[in-house]
Design a protein that fits this description.
The protein has 15 helices and no strands. The protein has 283 residues and is mainly α. The protein folds into two domains: 6-63; 75-279, Orthogonal Bundle (MetI-like fold). α1 (6-34) crosses α14 (249-269), α4 packs across α8 and α13 (232-239) packs antiparallel against α14 (249-269).
């Protein structure tokens, strides 16, 4: 039995508080920078207390501005593009992975094992290896600067397919026999039995895939050239146009903080389901 020591408890809390301060300090600096003008930020030393231009900065960031270096596109539009992209990628990955894992586990067809390993082996191919051919296909199909071009090439997921396959293999055969005796067909068994049993895994994957879709940088950098289709991560890059004196760092910092909000909200709201989906063993 582990004995509780007051000194060890104090030390543990001190280490955690120190870690939180290290992580939170850059966020605080970004918040402070977003409350000052661009001229005040580049002065030495940079102010460490919030200024009086917070509302003006976030208004300019969200709804756009008419002058300035770099991209002038409104951040509200960028966040909408990022939200649509992240949700389509997330739901697309989960749906396709559920169906592909269901087919691999419960259906008999020629070369079933070969099909699964063909899916699984794609984990060994990084995005950079296939990004050239993917771009060529998307370009030939006229899907550049579109939601389809941002999402369709990223929907397939070998990782999610493998995770659902491993879970489906743990489902007792008695459930399959009971569903057959009740006259349930394959899709009825899928919707009424497998999907409800997979809800914690789906929730965990939803959080992971939403953050994955929201933080996409390399592919949107190639697939978008119009400001109307910039995701917010690309928008931050496009705002940085030159040296410190040319960039409006207050707008950039405000955009960076706004870009953090949706993933943070998803993690906070689904934290319980996310943890349960990772550690729940009552399958």
């Amino acid at each position: 039995m582990v004995e509780r020591s007051p000194s060890l408890g104090i030390l543990a809390h001190a280490v955690m508080i120190f870690g939180v301060l290290i992580v939170a300090f850059p966020l605080y600096l970004a918040f402070v920078a977003s409350s000052h003008t661009a001229q005040e930020i580049v002065q030495a030393p940079m102010p460490l207390l919030p200024g009086g231009h917070l509302w003006e900065t976030y208004k300019s960031a969200l709804f756009g501005r008419t002058v300035g270096a770099g991209s002038l596109a409104p951040v509200a539009r960028m966040m909408w593009v990022s939200l649509v992209t992240a949700l389509v990628i997330t739901f697309g990955k989960i749906a396709i992975s559920l169906l592909s894992a269901f087919a691999v586990v419960y259906f008999r067809f020629p070369f079933k094992s070969l099909c699964f390993w063909a899916i699984f082996i794609t984990l060994m191919l990084p995005v950079e290896v296939r990004i050239g051919p993917t771009y060529q296909v998307v370009s030939d199909l006229g899907m550049l600067n579109s939601y389809a071009g941002l999402t369709v090439p990223l929907i397939a997921s070998a990782t999610a397919t493998f995770l659902f396959r491993q879970f489906f293999l743990t489902v007792p055969d008695e459930l399959i026999e009971a569903a057959r005796m009740d006259g349930a067909g394959p899709m009825r068994f899928f919707w009424d039995v497998l999907v409800p049993l997979s809800k914690t895994s789906i929730a965990a994957l939803f959080v992971i895939q939403f953050i994955y879709g929201w933080n996409q940088y390399l592919w949107p950098l190639l697939a978008t050239t119009s400001e109307d289709m910039y995701p917010v991560v690309i928008g931050i890059k496009r705002m940085i146009a030159g040296g410190d004196g040319q960039n409006e760092w207050n707008i950039v910092m405000a955009t960076a903080l706004l870009a953090m909000l949706p993933p943070a909200i998803v993690v906070i709201l689904m934290q319980k389901w996310f943890v349960k989906g990772l550690v729940d063993t009552e399958k």
